[in-house]
């Protein structure tokens, strides 16, 4: 990597913005788009470096595909490059979802048949994600068992800390069980971030995680409570946007900030836009507090991703060549599959599939995604129209 210039930074913004407009299909699809654009076409990163960066981001909590994009931006253009890569990839979907939230507020179309169809779209999309991720992340009996453990644990132990505990256990099991499966390649990648800055980011990550809930409770300030809720969602969720759904649902639906119908309608609509699924937070924040609420929710839920990427990339070369750390990555990836299946059951399935006709539509939409390779935006429109047809059958 040569000298960072204004031209290279503008290139990062332009390329990531184009990806932000066209990257449909969720985190697994985003990684494919990134590989094609950043590795094969532009060669900003080699194959091994990209695979190791993906593994690191799978291990970290937060939106894995967004963290990969930020990481590539950092490697290419330093801290400014990471921020620009994020903004380009994220802003298109943030703007659309905030507008959708304001539309729902203004016209009160919560109970429409099309919205029910969008909720069924979420069923098909998550089922498709589970199928793809399970094939790659649980290739043997040991990792399938870890996924089953994570599934059962998540369903039976439904607390804010359940996913953290399950991930830690899975990492420990993988650390010992798979420690000799990948010895590392010895490849080194230049990361233009100082270790002092990295340590500062790690301290800030844990400091906010510990003290924000305390401050929110002491002050009872609504905006601080909102910021804390989204920050914890971004800091404690493994597996990407699909898994953040139950955590945000527990934070805002029981407290009355947003109804379950609006919540799931927004999640279904989030499938229709390109970019990261974590931008669903923009919809939730926009529903609660308008434009500023949407932007604040977006900043809060992605802040942990920035702090963790900035905090770990300078140590990445040592981590990626450590066989036991690679084993921990394998264990975490398997647990992610189980957590994803648990979130698929509740609230996605239980709140969307209310009849055999709903299931038939979900099966049809799944077939469009998995076998016909239909573009996701067409699947979303089909689901909305299918919801209307169900009402007149």
Automatic annotation (TrEMBL):
Annotated transmembrane regions: 12-33, 82-103, 115-133, 145-176, 196-218, 230-248, 263-284, 291-316, 328-346, 376-392
Keyword check for Metal-binding: no
Principal cellular location given in the protein's record: membrane
Superkingdom, natural source: Bacteria
Lineage: Bacteria, Bacillati, Bacillota, Bacilli, Bacillales
Family: Belongs to the chromate ion transporter (CHR) (TC 2.A.51) family.
Alphabetical list of InterPro entries matching this protein: Chr_Tranpt_l_chain (IPR014047), Chromate_transpt (IPR003370)
Molecular function terms from GO: chromate transmembrane transporter activity
Entry protein name: Chromate transport protein
Membrane topology: Multi-pass membrane protein
Gene that specifies this protein: chrA
This protein's UniProt keywords: Cell membrane, Membrane, Transmembrane, Transmembrane helix
Subcellular location: Cell membrane
One Gene Ontology term, aspect cellular component: plasma membrane
